[in-house]
Write a structure and sequence with these properties.
One of its GO terms (molecular function) is DNA-binding transcription factor activity. With about 300 residues, this protein is of the alpha/beta class. The protein is built from 12 helices and 11 strands. The longest helix is centred in the first third of the chain and has 24 residues.
């Protein structure tokens, strides 16, 4: 065996950061040693693993083929080391990303639970919309993602965590607020403020209206739920938001959930990971503990 674990670690770090200097900082190596390790690996394999695009180093097709296999070897080596040093197997670092609803209402409790149960486990966390979570998982930026709705990419595996539902909300002074029900014609006549394109909430809402309302008057699109909530509370807009994001404001009287019998919108919140990724006890542990928490708290909305 002519390649070394050090060379594979250098390759994986450069693939992650798309930069020799950033990879060197991560691995506590000099830039020259990092460049040399990559050059030795490429020479041994007889194939270029990266190509330069501006200031970035981007994986070639050979690099994309090698990366999941290199990660498998590096992970197995780590597990061997942990075993011989009698450390917890559930230890190390995992990169997690979640869409806004899960990030704000479910992930903090999950991380708190994991910190208590598995103190050697470190979680890097990002909150972004579902489309960006999928892109990040697909491009190896994240080891595990949590999205709203579905992912149809065959390169991604998916497992439902729990369910949420979306509601259509108005201010307490909106003309529809006191209606027993609101029909499709009334919804089409209203002005709307909605999540941006690419957000899981928006995609599910658009799918629910497809073929039923052809010309919705979308006045504004924003990525931040608090902005949408306040716009609805202060004006005559409607919005469609997760129930978890509005329940406190409904109870306080700032918002009203409209009864829309023609539209019922439920959605899953799901874990996603690369279909070709290695077996990962850290990822499996997080999914297992998350499902246990939902069942314990009866959080199937």
């Amino acid at each position: 065996m002519r390649y070394s674990l050090k060379q594979l670690a250098v390759f994986d770090a450069i693939a992650r950061f798309e930069s020799v200097s950033l990879a060197a900082d991560k691995l506590a190596l000099t830039q020259s040693a990092t460049s040399m390790a990559l050059a030795q690996l490429e020479k041994m394999l007889g194939r270029p693993l990266f190509e330069r695009q501006g200031r970035r180093l981007v994986l070639t097709n050979w690099g994309k083929w090698l990366r999941p296999r290199a990660k498998q070897l590096l992970f197995d080596a780590q597990q061997i080391e942990l075993g011989f040093y009698d450390q917890q197997i559930i230890s190390g670092e995992l990169r997690l990303a979640a869409s806004q609803t899960a990030a704000e209402h479910l992930v903090p409790e999950l991380i708190s639970h994991l910190d208590s149960a598995f103190p050697e486990l470190r979680i890097e966390f990002d909150e972004i919309n579902s489309g960006h979570v999928i892109d990040g998982v697909r491009n190896y930026k994240f080891d595990l993602g949590i999205i709203e709705g579905r992912c149809d990419d065959t390169r991604i595996d998916q497992q439902i965590w729990c369910h949420d539902h979306l509601v259509i909300v108005a201010s307490a002074h909106h003309p529809y607020a006191n209606n027993d029900s609101v029909n499709l014609t009334q919804l089409e006549q209203a002005q709307w403020v909605l999540r941006e394109q690419g957000a899981g909430t928006r995609e599910i809402f658009d799918s629910a209206l497809y073929g039923r309302i052809d010309d919705l008057d979308v006045w504004r699109e924003y990525s931040h739920v608090p902005v949408l909530r306040q716009l609805v509370a202060d004006s005559l807009y409607l919005s469609c938001l997760p129930y978890l994001d509005v329940i406190k404001f409904v109870e306080r009287g700032d918002l009203v959930v409209l009864n829309t019998p023609d539209i019922k919108i439920e959605r899953p919140l799901s874990f996603i990971w690369r279909a070709d990724s290695i077996e990962n006890p850290l990822r499996d542990c997080i999914k297992r503990e998350a499902i246990k928490l939902v069942k314990r708290n009866q959080r199937v909305m």
